[in-house]
Design brief:
Blueprint: E1 4-6, E2 14-16, E3 22-28, H1 34-42, E4 47-52, E5 58-67, E6 72-81
Antiparallel strand pairs: 1-5, 2-3, 3-4, 4-5, 5-6
């Protein structure tokens, strides 16, 4: 079992998904304070906005998980679309 943890991805940074795709983090939800941020993060409910580098597909990632090798995945995604 590889080490993994919930993270808040860094906006402007590109991450490799477990399935091999590369995703740019374009932003994150805003929290009113650090306690709220830590609570959402620990519950796997943090929301990050990601864009697949190869074709621009955008999605909202819920509960981003990072593994020891740096790859990421998420609990589930919503709102997937191509930008107009």
């Amino acid at each position: 079992q590889m080490e993994k943890q919930y993270i808040i991805p860094v906006a402007g940074q590109t991450y490799r998904n477990r399935n091999g795709g590369e995703y740019l983090c374009t932003g994150n939800t805003f929290y009113v304070d650090d306690a709220q941020k830590q609570r959402f993060l620990s519950l796997g409910e943090h929301i990050a906005y990601m864009e697949r580098v190869k074709d621009g597909w955008r999605l909202t990632a819920h509960g981003v998980i990072q593994y020891a090798d740096g790859t990421i995945e998420w609990n589930y995604s919503t709102g997937g679309h191509f930008p107009y």
